[in-house]
Amino acid sequence: MELTWRPLSLDDTERLADVFAAAEAVDKTGEHYCAEDLREDFDTPLVDLADASTAIWDGDKLVGYALVQPRETADPVHMAQIEAEVHPGYRDDTVGAHLVDWFERTGKLVHARTFPDAPLELHAHAHESQLWFREAMAKGGFHTARTFLEMRADLANLPPAQPLPEEFPLVGFEQKYDELTRLARNDTFGDHWGSTDHSPEMWRHLVTGAKDFRPDLSFLLLSPSRDEVVAFVTSAFFKTDAEATGILDCYVDYVGTRASLRGRGVATALLGHTLAKAKEAGFQRSSLSVDLENVNGALGIYERCGYVVAERWSGLVRALS
Which of 163, 221, 244, 257 might form a disulfide with 32, Cβ 3.0–4.6 angstroms? Predict the structure, then answer.
């Protein structure tokens, strides 16, 4: 089998969606991608398809891809993000070894252009069922540094919502609160493993400007003077997943509370309010992801809101310098 490796392009997303579909039929990660989803993911200033991506071809058939993406900051380590998907019919030791080698070479190239003075780590995420990818990365020197829990709540059986604090005005997300919400996110996630600050451009690309963002199911608590977001929940609805599963799932991207308010049940109350509104809007389920070792006790918050652990993901890391 003679495979060709060359940079990915946005014109390849239709065929790449077929690769993802074939992989999902085997891996059962619960994630589904259409060409529009992939195009949105790749069409960002941090993604350099020409120099930091590769597509794997068997003749004129696209059978896989890989990508290295720098982070916006390196404080103190540059945690470059890597990702890949390979059609199940092409998963073997040779392809796995080639991927690892390509990640190392390309990761160093990207790093040299962005944060050459910082230590470099390559970071990947892998579902517990993605056995081939996990094994290939382990053979290439990656180790499991963190475990993330995928949690789900049945909106038909929610526990009673807790009262919201009256001193902080509750508002639905609007664009006029976009920058305040970004600042709150950067502040509240600053101590989370693997997290870096989002610039306004990346915040809009990843969250509030994304096609799947649901501002009507995203809620904020403001300071009494209304000049700061003190707690927030942002949500998304992935249409491609709903079309594949038949389940309307309100995905909670972020739940955050300023440090001065932690321990008062604010996050539990605001998330409970969000879930009640999602149920009213016709959603059947809500999902979110949480670091098993979250320093702020997020797992307990989510359990009090009715979430239970459904699946596990791993944070895979390899230090290169």
Answer: 244
